[in-house]
Amino acid sequence: MITAPTVLSAVSLILLFNCVVCAEDDPTQGFVQLPFNSSFYYIQKPYDLDVSKRYSFVNGTHKLWVYSTDKPLARSSPTRPRTEVIINGYNYTSGVWQFEGTAYVPTGTSGVCIMQVFGADPNATITTTLMLRVYSGNLTYYTDPVIVPQIYDRWFRVNVIHDMDASYVSAYIDGVLSYEGSGRGGAFHFFKFGVYAQKNDSDYMESRWKDIKIFKKIVKDSHKKHHRHRNKISGFH
Ligand SMILES: *[C@@H]1O[C@H](CO)[C@@H](O)[C@H](O)[C@H]1NC(C)=O
Ligand SMILES: *[C@@H]1O[C@H](CO)[C@@H](O)[C@H](O)[C@H]1NC(C)=O
Ligand SMILES: *[C@@H]1O[C@H](CO)[C@@H](O)[C@H](O)[C@H]1NC(C)=O
Ligand SMILES: *[C@@H]1O[C@H](CO)[C@@H](O)[C@H](O)[C@H]1NC(C)=O
Ligand SMILES: *[C@@H]1O[C@H](CO)[C@@H](O)[C@H](O)[C@H]1NC(C)=O
Ligand SMILES: *[C@@H]1O[C@H](CO)[C@@H](O)[C@H](O)[C@H]1NC(C)=O
Q1: Relative to the alpha carbon of 90, which ligand is closest?
Q2: Nearest Cα residue to atom 4 of ligand 1
Q3: Which residue intervals define the domain Alginate lyase in the entry (predicted)?
Q4: Are 167 and 183 in contact (CB under 8 A)?
Q5: pLDDT 10s digits, 6-48
Q6: Whole-model pTM?
Q7: Ligand 3 centre and the CA of 118: distance in Å?
Q8: Which ligand is nearest to the CA of 210?
């Protein structure tokens, strides 16, 4: 027999569980960490320069920089200059994937993408599912919304989750859900980070990254959950 107290305690359990999920200071919960080392990535940089002219890896910190007057990554490429770590060891075509890294952007770096989820619907005008950019110190999702203002000169932790199956993407900054929205299609994706010049780029662009981790969600078919929030949010914190 179901008594009122039983129902009540079931309800409070659900509330408790939901609250734990809401707080979500550990976005990696439910994910497994995959191996990651230099055999899972390479560096894209201006085609006419040695990698050491635009990239260093010292004491576990990747430092990537580029100038607005630099050449693109290939002679034939029409794209703007970049120095990026491309994580080609984890191309993915399904599932729920997560990138984690701790980033630092010095004052002055602006008009630049610092992290991207590559891949989108081939008919779309853009080739990415998510870009985190910096404009005058604001961290933005593409050009808007601003997801965290005044990001310069401090280390911040970035967790980006891409649920390909549900076409959903989210970004946590320092453990706080700061952006979520729908995916942009595409059959093939991977993560990148560094500096990729955009419109209104500063003369010099730099980002530093450490503690890079790649995770994949363990999905048990009978426990597949659906996302409760599908709308874009942008939170200041
Ligand atoms: C990177 O990790 C993989 C998988 O754990 C391992 O097989 C490989 O030897 C490692 N490579 C380097 C350069 O450490
Ligand atoms: C790297 O770390 C070592 C030990 O903590 C330190 O002595 C050294 O100055 C660091 N080098 C750089 C370039 O930060
Ligand atoms: C990932 O895709 C790229 C093409 O963009 C390819 O060159 C690379 O070999 C792929 N990596 C793996 C591990 O399949
Ligand atoms: C892209 O557009 C073409 C032509 O309109 C269409 O045939 C194709 O199905 C579209 N592809 C996707 C993935 O929507
Ligand atoms: C940075 O974000 C703040 C808060 O949204 C906004 O007022 C300001 O205009 C933004 N600056 C730039 C350069 O976008
Ligand atoms: C670039 O700068 C121009 C002129 O200052 C401004 O109108 C435009 O909104 C800026 N675009 C971006 C993407 O910041």
Answers
A1: 3
A2: 35
A3: 39-215
A4: yes
A5: 444 444 444 444 444 444 569 999 999 999 999 999 999 999 9
A6: 0.84
A7: 12
A8: 2
Pocket of ligand 5 (CB under 6 A): 135-136, 138, 146, 149
Number of residues that this document lists for the chain:
237
Of 156, 155, 177, give the one whose Cα is nearest residue 168: 177
Cβ-Cβ contacts under 8 Å for 218 (sequence gap 6 or more): 30, 31, 32
Domain of 99, in residue numbers: 35-217
Q: Which ligand is nearest to the CA of 123?
A: 4
Structural domain contains residue 233: no
Which residues are bridge partners to 20 per DSSP?
none
Say if 235 falls within a structural domain: no
Both tokens of 76, joined, read: 């034939």
| CA 223 to ligand 5 center in whole angstroms | 41
CATH number at residue 142: 2.60.120.200
Query: By alpha-carbon position, which residue is closest to atom 11 of ligand 2?
Result: 59
